[in-house]
Amino acid sequence: MYIIDDDADVREALESLLQSVGLESKSFSSTQDFLRNRSDIVSCLILDVRLFGASGLDFQLKLTQAGIDIPVIFITGHGDMRMSVGAMKAGAVHFLTKPFREQDLLDAVQEALARDRTRRTKAAQWQGLKARYESLSEREREVFPLVTAGLQNKQIAHKMQLAEVTAKVHRGNLMRKLQARGVAELVKIAGALGIG
Hints:
single chain; alpha/beta; Rossmann fold; Arc Repressor Mutant, subunit A; 12% strand; elongated
């Protein structure tokens, strides 16, 4: 859990609130300090909209452009509807105007942490799927779209000018390496990988 606010009293109050419900946090007075000291762990960022010399909204964009995917909860004493809508469109979890209820912030933090866990799980699944796909031989990759198109081994063999038994072996290896229990599951995998 990270906090960026240039007001030391606000940082301290937020750290105390989070600690009161068993959540560890690190706070920073600037975006530069955060970038130098953050860890890639399940987390979220409580970010003040108005920072000294910077805008929290601009920093949110900078994070996105840098490929740093962390759920953001904006807090501000000077928010307006346009600002709130812009932040939410850019992916912010919540936009809270000071003074806000402590429970509203805690609820936002729980939602942000859940969102980050889900994103990380999906990313890990995608990396696993990508690694399994990369383990396929060139021939297995050629067979993949033919199997998902519904072709039988005989048709695949004819199309690729292979013996039917060879097509069957490639199909079996493809299913095993991608951990697919059937053609329907293989079709889903192909969709996830963008293969058609």
